[in-house]
Amino acid sequence: MNLNDQQIMAQVLSGRTELFDELVRRHRASMLRAACSKLRNSAAAEEAVQDAFLNAYARRVTFNAQYSFRGWLWTILLNTCRTLARRERNRPDQANGGDLLYQNEPVSNDDALGHLLNLERNALLAELLNELPEPQADALRLRFYGGLKFEEIAQAMNCSLNGAKQRVRCGLERLAASVRRNGSFSQDPERDK
Prior knowledge:
mainly alpha; Rna Polymerase Sigma Factor, Chain: A; 8 helices; 67% helix; 0% strand
């Protein structure tokens, strides 16, 4: 489909609601990676992404075409993740395990070691992101999982453009300091032992 997100939303708002599926297809994978990073549980991440799309569809008439669709959608995802995380923290019967072995695609035997190393790095990255202040961690998730531009990050986080840039920069600096301290993310698997 050659339409951009804004054009698709205009079509959805004019009654062609079936086109919303194209927006889900385009954004689901990156939203799922970000939600998994934030919630540290693939089942909770799936629930958050599904709820975010359901909320976006239900509230589609609130979309303002002057702003980025991605910024609007990711605002909904961040709010959904916060609500879900708060609900999970308040459930004493719920084990809060770090299920980060979310897998999007099948892996061949030849790629198994690389895939496992990637999962380990992703788990470490999610852990490091969760140690950052939430605004910095979310800004990094929006920038690198979502591929959002700084203007879209500012929109999604309800802050200024400079504020969005500052959150990403400070978050990256803190991540780099943590990586240097821990000696993590080396390219040599033997060094990580």
